[in-house]
Design brief:
Helices cover 38% and strands 12% of the residues. It has 66 residues and is of the alpha+beta class. It has one domain: Factor Xa Inhibitor.
């Protein structure tokens, strides 16, 4: 059986933690930053973690060897 291919778009967006959670970078921190508050920008720098629902799909279909 051939190797499964990783979806490269998903590999660029998601990382798997040691505990099995899916980590991603939050959106809205690229441009038009002057109107966003400092508190909002600071919280957007922290990584986001996916809920339990789509984690199984991402691990199985998009990142099979993650």
């Amino acid at each position: 059986m051939p190797k499964m291919k990783t979806k490269k778009a998903a590999a660029k967006r998601y990382k798997l933690t040691a505990g099995g959670k899916v980590k991603y970078k939050k959106m809205n921190l690229r441009h038009i930053l002057t109107k966003k508050t400092t508190k909002r920008k600071r919280n957007l720098r922290k990584p986001g973690f996916l809920d339990a629902g789509p984690v199984h799909q991402i691990k199985k279909k998009l990142l099979p060897y993650g």
